[in-house]
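Hi Y.,

Following your request, here is the sequence exactly as I used it, all 393 residues.
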Amino acid sequence: MDIYTKELEYLLNNYWCVKEQNPKIYFNIKNNLDYYREFIRDKLGSKLIVNDRFIKLEKIPASPKSYMGIIDFDDKLEYTILFIILLFLEDKPKLEQFILSNLIEFISNTATTLELDTIPNWNILHHRKCLVTVINHLKELNIIRVVEENNLFTEDSKAEALYETTGLSNYYVREFKNNILEYRNIDDYINDEFNEQNENIGDVRRYKVYRHLLYSLVTYTEDLTEYELDYLKRFRSNINNELSKYTKGELELTNNMAVVMFESDAGEKFDFPNNKAISDIVLLVNNAILKEQENDKLKLEKDETIIITKENLQRILKEIRLENGKYFSKKYREMPTKNFIDEVILYLKEYDFIRDYELGYKIYPMISRLIGYIPKDTEEQLELFGGETDEEN
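Below is the corresponding structure, written out as tokens. Let me know if you'd prefer a different format.
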């Protein structure tokens, strides 16, 4: 893979590139912008922010999916805390320091003032864990830095810490062209940048097709408008050439699915498989479903999907747990069966492997592209793709 492709891949795979954290990558990207700036502008229609501190490709999807959230967040409260912290940091100049107790007081007071559904209670362990998850996320993005930490906040609600801001917090959220207070649904946010342009013709249609392909794990034809599908079919060869040139990805277009397969691990781009043990379990589920279809226990429909009853899918999950449970993390070994089934099915839905369908589910062809298995001679805990196995997964 040439240097240019690696740079564009980095922008696709990461929230941004901060010079202080990754100076070599930052300058490689900045010095070679001319190679892929045209592709980003003309094909993706995405905003590329370049300044003396960071480079950011704003990856606004054509169609939002559940898996596009922050991978380490599992609770709505974490998103609430995140945006309250961004309010806290908004007027703080670079390198200004603040203590944890002041931050948590601001979060509680702001949540109360806004009359939010959930007011953080720092005596509750789960709420403290949510705050720590958000702080770790901001540290990873170099929005805040640790100056000093004593006891862990998860263990002690009276714990104290000293942080400083890097001045990057104001760049975290994208700029909107219109008043978002007037927005009523997620489509309003998605379409904000197009400023009421016709999405079925010209540039916007092209942007959306390329965004479907590069900003999503997979795109099913039912998620495309007839105009987007027409563009994808008519310009398939040209699209594949462009993707091959700039990303080293190869377009796969079937009757029901459009997906770009890359040389590098899919997990780098889509956070699947990821560091959560459940993603490894889902790989086993995908493999089991595929085997049942190959053995004619499940019927492959003309549109490449499989219709399965709730009872049948539950049976498959129970069998996988029975056969492979000893390899699972402690959480999934000890979890009640119903909770295990509900959590795995929810995860399958979030990553668009299955969708609700009448009295059961419709299974989509992407399951055949991401599968896993456990070698017969292994005695190790399940860790197919580096998935963590501790109790908190």
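Residues 76-171 form a domain with the Arc Repressor Mutant, subunit A fold (CATH 1.10.10).

Thanks again,
Q.
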